[in-house]
Amino acid sequence: MTIWLDHHIERDGFQTETSGEMSASAILKLQAAGFSTEQVTALAELIDSQAATKADLEAAKHELGAQIGGVKSELGARIDSVKSDLEAAKHELGGRIDSLEHSLGSKIDAVDHRLDMKIARLDGEFALVKWMLGFTLAFEVALFYKLFLH
């Protein structure tokens, strides 16, 4: 049940007429708490001026929906832009990695070739040292034989 309050309020020499909608239980509770009829009326007017109507809520809902739609569109565009940038960076990095891989492969092959050449040279030098050692040993055996056994 809703009760309409119609009152004349005089304040500071000015008279105003008020009317507002309040439930009967709200009025009874306020009057039981010690509120005067003028106070109840003022409170009803305050609530009426501050409360939002269903139309206000629908308008706000529509406005927020439009803003959310705009934000979604902008966010989607930014996400697409970031994806595009990431794909470009991925492609560029892939090219750089391939280039570095080729360059490192060439350098590794060059080092491998130089090592093979050095190993071959050391094998030759080692063979020469073995022959020289064998000749020296044969010479010393012959000298030992000539000196002590003959």
Automatic annotation (TrEMBL):
TM region(s), chain numbering: 127-148
Keywords, sorted A to Z: Membrane, Transmembrane, Transmembrane helix
Keyword Transmembrane found: yes
Highest taxon of the lineage: Bacteria
Protein name, entry field: DUF1640 domain-containing protein
Biological source species: Methylosinus sporium
